[in-house]
Design brief:
single chain; mainly alpha; Kinesin; 2 domains; two-stranded antiparallel ribbon; two-stranded antiparallel sheet; 7 helices; 45% helix; globular; binds adenosine-5'-triphosphate; myosin; Myo19 protein; actin filament binding
Length: 212
């Protein structure tokens, strides 16, 4: 992924307001004065859908600090390379959890988490859900998996029940502890030139009597 400072050569060194303004102007010029690409929250809406336009859209969103974009039923996550606590706040998790249609909210890993959670709760076949997190080394797969585990820990535990919360934390920890094993399978794939540091895991864990 190109960092925004690579987009406009020679204009990104200034950190003052004027520098930032010219960066934005240059970027807009670079984008050819098209409709603001960062507002497209689904890559299938980019017209025409080409590698160039898709990358431009992701670049434009990255520049606006928007790190999640839908691509049809797939979610594309960009690594912000900086901490963004508000993007993973428990309040935001609850917002996605409580939304009648989470897919209508801004693209987020919590949408994926909530959808699978609802599928498990609905007990409609197939009850077991899988989420595939893939990407290059350093893309943010482990981070994303942790976000999902935290999400399930928050939404699956009743705030009134301390015991439920503790159990959710124990489940989160167990799954996170299994990461090295799952990653080892991924690395084996790299050696075989089949996969590139990918791992799969079941999520959320099987549901028993109403609790995760
Ligand atoms: N959403 C995010 N917000 C903030 N920082 C992030 C985010 N995603 C990734 N990072 C940063 O990028 C680093 C690398 O991410 P991560 O370890 O998840 O990559 P990975 O895809 O699992 O890499 P590998 O395949 O090599 O294990 C993290 O340590 C974190 O600092």
């Amino acid at each position: 992924m190109l960092s925004p400072c690579h987009i406009v050569n020679g204009h990104s060194s200034g950190t003052d307001v004027q520098g930032r303004t010219s960066l934005k102007e240059d970027l807009q010029q670079f984008l050819g004065g098209e409709a603001p690409l960062h507002q497209l929250d689904d890559l299938t809406k980019v017209n025409p859908v080409t590698l160039k336009t898709v990358l431009r859209c992701l670049q434009a969103r990255y520049t606006e600090d928007i790190f999640y974009t839908n691509a049809g039923c797939t979610l594309v996550a960009l690594n912000p390379f900086k901490p963004i606590p508000q993007l993973y706040a428990p309040e935001l998790m609850q917002e996605y959890h409580a939304a009648p249609q989470p897919q209508k909210l801004k693209p987020h890993i919590f949408t994926v988490g909530e959808q699978t959670f609802r599928n498990v709760k609905s007990l409609i076949e197939p009850i077991n859900q899988s989420i595939v997190v893939s990407g290059e080394s350093g893309a943010g797969k482990t981070w994303t998996s942790r976000c999902l585990m935290k999400f399930y820990a928050v939404v699956a535990s009743s705030p009134a029940s301390c015991e439920n919360h503790k159990m959710a934390e124990r489940i989160e920890q167990r799954i996170l502890n299994s990461n090295p094993v799952m990653e080892a399978f991924g690395e084996l794939g790299v050696l075989c030139a089949v996969l590139q540091s990918h791992f799969l895991w079941d999520s959320p864990p099987s549901r028993r009597e109403g609790v995760l």
